[in-house]
Amino acid sequence: MPDSTPDASRAVESKPRQRRMVDLAPLRASPAFARLWFGGAIAGIGAQMSIVAVGLQIYDITESTFMVGLVGGAALLPMIAAGLWGGMLADVFDRRKILIVSSLVGWLSTLGLVALSTWDAVMLSQGERVEAWPFLVITTINAVAATISSATRSALIGRILPSDMISRAAALNGIAFGLTLTIGPAFAGILAATVGLPWTFAADAVLFTAGFLGVWMLPALPRIGEPVRAGWAVMREGFSFLKRAPNIRMSFIVDIVAMTFGRPYVLFPALGATVIGGGALTVGALTAAGAVGTILTSLFSGPVARVHRHGIAIARSITVFGLFGLAFGVIVAAVGVSDFTAAPGWSGIHWAALITLGLMLAGMGASDEVSAIFRQTMLIQAVPDQMRGRLQGVFIVVVTGGPRIGDMYAGVLATAVALWFPPLVGGIAIVALIAILTRVHRARSGQTFRDYDALNPVP
Fold it and tell me: What is the pLDDT of residues 273-286, one digit of tens each?
């Protein structure tokens, strides 16, 4: 296993061999990382199936886009608390143990969704439905467990891989994430349309076992340095570090901007039912389309190891993300004023609209993945190991809480105005805010976020 001392984890990257395709060296260098990566990819497919299935289940019960958006909104505050507290725990206790406990809680909550969805199917056969709020409660528990797991998993990467492989590992994680977003939603759409939602949730519970095996086989990962007591003092220390880390703060802010104004996913059930047609099939296809871009970016991620101006790369990629989101809104508006009549099933789909919207989502996925690779690399290289759990906790709150704010934003505006309005206005807001924030903000050194250089990783 590579040296896990703070100095080794913060080493400057060696000059990598030039290549175009993704670099698999991290999988060969660390068996622990390889097991965690493969297991996480398989379990992630199931998790994405449940995410899509919950949206379909609640829309089926309530026929309300606002209620679908509330799935994310209801979990927001608990996730913020879980991310901050869980990140602190990852800096105090053995990270392997934290990951095992949080993973088991997530699995139990998935079993709860299986039971609740099955009960709704029984009630439906009798002409009644269960309430939507139990799904919100169980989904919130699942989101809290996933937040703690994600923060801990990200914090330990610097302990099982050398520093010169962090950006390449981030690209590999992008492939895994892209596969989960491609296969999971597609399978969810197919299973929901054929065998029903209870079996869709059950598939997630089964696939969980692969991810848990990778977690269980991790080596012990206790805290480096003197032991500390978990509590508010440790959390305040993390916030104090973040206050002195302008580049890390800005990486959080720009991602919040992108995820708040560039999340059209909550609109998919309504688009499949009223605009494009196809119902659950369209929801699965649109959700998977964004992951196609993520996978393509990661597959051709060989050059990322040679990029060191990470601030510029992040700013440009998020700007492109916003432009694709704007185009998505324009296309939805154009289809909405046409004379097309949406209907369930393959024959009721507006195929031209589905394909063009899929291309826009692929572009959003590709540009978002570029940003994610460099933001995650920055967070690991510029932050000492003793602080990574707490900073990863804040990071996870941003990357999971931001989309939930975005879901609420899109759900409210779509209900108040039209389905095309949130992505169109959001795309404009992203482009404008990124241009302003990344140029105006300056650290004490006088440098802007765009000046960040991985050859001298200053938080």
Answer: 888 878 878 887 88
